[in-house]
């Protein structure tokens, strides 16, 4: 078995206190591997989003350890954690905050330039990624000129541009129609396989099940089941 790229050990996250105490993650331990797309399922309020935010360095757990690419992320100082996340982690959320004034091409080029890329190289990467997500013909369109599904694909292309080895997605297809939902599911799966990424994806969407290497179900902040569906 390969080494795990994300390791959570005995992680606890609570909200509130006394009568209103909620245990969103209850001594949860987990190992996640590169080149795999793992789905997280479970009832509303079971702790799925909290899992992503604790493993992704967005929300500090009360106790336990989280190692990402061998580094104990919650032992880092805030600025270091921000840098680590920016360098290695990609996030896909339902609303992705594209800039209204930028074209699809610019949405990808500008962050790459900000991270130090030369314009010509950034522009070539942006064009290749827009092709990969099926939007080469939309490179000069702004968000208002595209559908929700197309904008979601631009956001995924932007996320993939920095070649993250760790990708967290929270309900990435829930607002999409069937065709766009399939495209996004396929893109996340391909990112795991082609770019050797670890993809952890929270979803209620059964369309994603066929793309999964592994399926976790969470109940009451604990892992209830952990299965690997047989490949067709
Ligand atoms: N910031 C917060 N403050 C207080 N309680 C919170 C907060 N965030 C989450 N919770 C609570 O923690 C529990 C787990 O929430 P979480 O969002 O992780 O669940 P989920 O499985 O992602 O739910 P859903 O499927 O509805 O998105 C819930 O009971 C929720 O109400």
Automatic annotation (TrEMBL):
<dbReference type="InterPro" id="IPR003439">
    <property type="entry name" value="ABC_transporter-like_ATP-bd"/>
</dbReference>
<keyword id="KW-0067">ATP-binding</keyword>
<dbReference type="InterPro" id="IPR027417">
    <property type="entry name" value="P-loop_NTPase"/>
</dbReference>
<protein>
    <submittedName>
        <fullName>ABC transporter ATP-binding protein</fullName>
    </submittedName>
</protein>
<feature type="domain" description="ABC transporter">
    <location>
        <begin position="6"/>
        <end position="232"/>
    </location>
</feature>
<comment type="similarity">
    <text>Belongs to the ABC transporter superfamily.</text>
</comment>
<dbReference type="GO" id="GO:0016887">
    <property type="term" value="F:ATP hydrolysis activity"/>
</dbReference>
<dbReference type="Pfam" id="PF00005">
    <property type="entry name" value="ABC_tran"/>
</dbReference>
<keyword id="KW-0813">Transport</keyword>
<dbReference type="InterPro" id="IPR003593">
    <property type="entry name" value="AAA+_ATPase"/>
</dbReference>
<keyword id="KW-0547">Nucleotide-binding</keyword>
<dbReference type="GO" id="GO:0005524">
    <property type="term" value="F:ATP binding"/>
</dbReference>
<dbReference type="InterPro" id="IPR017911">
    <property type="entry name" value="MacB-like_ATP-bd"/>
</dbReference>
